[in-house]
Amino acid sequence: QLQLVESGGASVQAGGSLRLSCAASAAISNRCMAWFRQAPGKEREGVAILNSIIGITDYTDSVKGRFTISKDNAMYTLYLQMNNLKPEDSAIYYCAATVPNYTCNMGSSPYPYWGQGTQVTVSS
């Protein structure tokens, strides 16, 4: 059973940066990995995916050019670099993983493994 633990959430001012980390308990090199977020009163939304199977990344439109998803296979860790943060980026951020060699998308259904979340708060 893969376990995921997020860290790096904090309170920052608009325009600031944060780097979220997601430490996995097993190899992630052959898994599709993703970051999701959920703000109070809103549905969970996909933020970024890293599809190692076909070698692509994708982002939701609102974060393109500001967020970067990456991973360190040797360290079993997924990252989300967030720059030029805006108040609307405030949410609990979750990392998610598929089973090995399974594709993924921005929807939540391909991911059976989830972390507990880390809070990001951006003040104006």
Q: Report how far the terminal alpha carbons are from each other.
A: 40 Å
Could you tell me the mean pLDDT? 95
Rg from C-alpha positions? 13 Å
What share of the residues does DSSP label as strand, in percent?
A: over 45%
SS-derived structural category: mainly beta
How many individual helices?
Answer: 0
Low-confidence stretches: none
Largest sheet: 7 strands, mixed
- How many beta strands in the DSSP annotation? 11
So what's the overall shape? Answer: globular
Work out the helicity level. Answer: under 10%
Task: Note the run of SSEs as H and E.
Answer: EEEEEEEEEEE
Highlighted features:
seven-stranded mixed β-sheet; four-stranded antiparallel β-sheet; 124 residues; mainly beta
Your description of this structure?
Strands 2, 4, 5, 6, 9, 10 and 11 form a seven-stranded mixed sheet that branches. Strands 1-3-8-7 form a four-stranded antiparallel sheet, with no helix packed on it. It has 124 residues and is mainly beta. Strand 5 (45-51) and strand 6 form a beta hairpin. It has strands spanning 4-7, 11-13, 18-24, 32-38, 45-51, 56-59, 67-72, 77-82, 91-97, 113-114, 118-123.
Any chance you could write out the topology, listing elements then pairs?
Blueprint (H helix, E strand, L loop, with lengths): L3 E4 L3 E3 L4 E7 L7 E7 L6 E7 L4 E4 L7 E6 L4 E6 L8 E7 L15 E2 L3 E6 L1
Offer a quick outline of the entry.
Helices cover 0% and strands 48% of the residues. It is mostly beta strands.
